Amino acid sequence: MALIPIALERLQRDGLEDPEAQARAWCQRLEAGDILYFPQTPIHFGSHDLAFLLGQQQTGSTLHKNIAYKPNLDTVSGLDASTTSAAELNQLRAVMRQYSQDVTRFLTHFLTPYQGRWQLDYASFRPQEEEGRDLPLRRRNDLLHTDAFPTRPTRGARILRFFNNIHPSRTRDWVVGDPFALLAPLYAPQHIPLPASGNSASRALRSLATAAGLGYAIPSLKRSPYDDFMMRFHNFLKENASFQAECRKEYLRFPPGSSWMVYTDMVPHAVLSGQYALEQTFLVEHQAMVSPETSPLSVLEAMTHSALV
Length: 309
Ligand code: SIN
Ligand code: FE
Prior knowledge:
Radius of gyration: 20 Å
Low-confidence stretches: none
Bound molecules: succinic acid, fe (iii) ion
Distance between the termini: 27 Å
Helix content: 25-40%
Strand order of the largest sheet: 1-2-9-6-11-5-3-4
Order of helices and strands: EHHEHEEHEEEHHHHHEEEEH
Mean pLDDT: 91
Largest sheet: 8 strands, mixed
Number of helices: 10
Structural class: alpha+beta
Number of strands: 11
Oligomer: single chain
């Protein structure tokens, strides 16, 4: 894992020799498990919006880990309904909509090989202090893990996340580990059964349901063997105390006002402390990969000699 710092002046100068080659090189770094890091964020925040976000407190339950914005529905969830007025909710929705659009616009130009080849997933606002949060083990973010979404299987699409630390003075502190391609063979199949491609009957059922538009209504059908493995791998890492204690780690501190992005399905990561972050998730088509051989799907298909989505 390497942290690749990118200075904004470098993007603003028209002087990039070959912008296409540079964009491909950035995709390659991401796909190798590196983190692209902007000491100064390329995303602009109005001072009014920033002050509003920093005034938010997500109180109460562990029902919602973060505040989520769903771009396709233009809705916000995860707020404490008893203490949030309709006006506040509207304002938060407007600020998050703007953030989601700004990050999308930036990445559309920055990562041109992926242009039009992702599905815009949720954005999130993380107003809580991360240190000492009391969450159930599988939902904890202070334990190293690769990301997999229980209710939103990706079927091989990659999970690319773009973060902003908007805290006025504190760093957001992460720890990251060795990428999926190194970890998977250490634990699978001895400790985590490898995915099976599914027998031909279950494959036939899945394609029938998909053709009938039912694929997304039936959870066990919308999850491919790949998704199933990625979910089990996420759980295994969080539940494995010796992995947590002994794996190779790098500690990173993202300063206030910075941005970073990473394929969180391949880079084990945890947040140890920090407060007030924004994040936008993209599900990037597997076919858009510049170096597909390093993706979790390719790694698993090579290990199992079978098709997993
Ligand atoms: C995570 O994706 O596990 C959380 C990262 C963060 O909130 O900084
Ligand atoms: Fe995560």
